[in-house]
Amino acid sequence: MIKVRPWAERSNTIAIIPGKKSERRESLVDIASQLPRPAGEEILVRRAAGPPVSVSVDDICVNQLSRGALVRRESDNRWVAAEPLLKWLANPLDDALAEHLHGNTKFFGELLANIEKPNSKADFLALARKYGLHWTSTTQLYARINFMELLGLVEQWETYKFVITDRGRSLVARIQLVDAAAAVGEELRIKDAKIDFSLPAPREEIADLLAGLDDQHLRNRKVIIGYIPRGRKAPDRESDAGSVTPLEAIRALVDLIGDRCTVEDFFDRCSQQLGMKKSSITQTLQTLRQMGVIESVAFNEYAPTVGTLDLIQPGQELDFVRYLHSRYRFFGELLTLISDPTPVPDVVKVAKEVHELAQIDNSEIRTRLGFMIEAGLVDRIDWTRYRASIRGRALIESLPLEEPDDPQSGQDGGVEAASGPYVADELARLTADLRNYSHRSDASREFEIAVARAFEFLGFAAQHLGGSGRTDVVLETHLPDKDAYRAIIDAKASASGTITDNHVKFDALKDHQRIHRADFGMIVGPDFAERVRVWAANNGFTLLTVEDLIAILKRHLSSPITLTELKGLFQQTGDNLTDIEEQYSSAERSSALLAKLVELLHAEARDEDPLMDGYISVENINYALRKDMNPRPPTSAVEEALQFLSHDFVRGAIKDGPRYKLADAPVNIRRRLIGLGNSLELPSEK
After folding, report:
1. What confidence score (pLDDT) does residue 604 get?
2. I want to staple 256 with a disulfide (CB 3.0 to 4.6 A). Which of 143, 269, 343, 606 is the partner?
């Protein structure tokens, strides 16, 4: 008799069989026939392309076949096939395997019983939602259907049309099904369930990463994951099917890179195949690099990182989450906050107020949750609330977690605490206002004010006017006459998210530009119809989407460029931001160079057997940077940065001819630079 687990104890995910769809039966037979096999040994596995390859039995069993309990590890450390799988091997007409999958996996028999109802991707996802499974992709749905086809329970007639077979109907009649209401009820009671549940152990390299996460390493993790494109403009997507998951998006981007490609090729492929703008592609490239998914392999060329490439493959989702936890703050930690169904804004509030991570916003939390949902660690209860699953609760117990500072214990580095997070928090509020008001036709004044605040953040003197017959915002630059310029901005909100030609009157805008003696004119809105783009170019106006403006604000927070350089934002027409992108990239390269120089000097200072008393020559510095930075900085930029570090204002390095050595702890150098910035009294504050 097959044991049917209570709904709450079943796995959210099902085993993934490697190989092409047409070969998965043979692939499963091949793998099962090579068991039992001691842990640590290799087995042959079919892939989607090419001949079978040798892989670790632990990898294939832990990450792909243990879900749904197809395999188990015995006490003698051998991997063995589950009894129902062995029965199926002996007799493909035996239904023990189908009953076993139903008893151990959520939404297997229930999907089979309803398989003929859906007619689209959206229908399938809606059916899963009724059972409390708020998936945004069909990955797990098709993984179940693949098993049903393999076991002769269903047949596929069209893309989203499946027909249950007589054998499938017979199985449905025998098994105990859970109705949708009861399933949701079980999901909501999950936090009170006392269940002995253990997760598969992490692979060796991931275990080593987690073992190295002491308090200092936990605090040194990055805060922001960054931009991952998951919108509706990707090709071959149904408009009502929702966004792809973050991991699916990363897989697609890595596929675009292939074995390796130049930055120019990557930009072309993202633009042509995903419809992305250059500003979005630049942010995406930075996200992939910081995540360690891709690495520089030559000047201006990238390739997938070998170890991480394996982690993003189907079946590795849990270890990828563990890997991300080792790189980003407030990753696994957020699981501790969602034992009950919890709205995202509540999680963001804790990140800001308790963990003092002012940069964290709703988008960052949803990205983290997206990775966890795909790993079966989090369930989406409804459109706003999430809750840790049994797997997620088990993961909490196995992760080293960062504890927030005790607010009563005092803060280390008062300057940083007082200034940095405050500015980041200000930007987070501004970003939320821009996104919110730009999509509300009843909040045009609020949107205009938010746009004015955004340009004040960039350093402009912004005056909000608004009202009938007046321009919305006037910008001035308090620079010497030769460098000064003025611009008007028309802020357009739209509930539909697109500004059409009915929203914009270019003749009136030209009058405003003349009245205010403005050198430039700009329109800011959520997005623009093609005709508006053409007319803007013809009339000499710049178009700036809210998301592009937010991207500029975020880059300006850490790598601000000058008002003179920002003039390029207005000098182009239409929505081409190529020049301004290069300005910010240049500023970011300068910051990265400074950080890398401090890192090199610090490493030399800590060398147990320094060759030159802690000094390192400019020639050796250039050689080291050649391997670590892409594009490689010119020697002139390196020498200028070293001179800056050795200046008496900074006192970060000591110069001795063509050599330099570290003069202070990096944390003191950072604080000194922050202190210099805070000591500047702004004219408006006098």
Report:
1. 78
2. 269
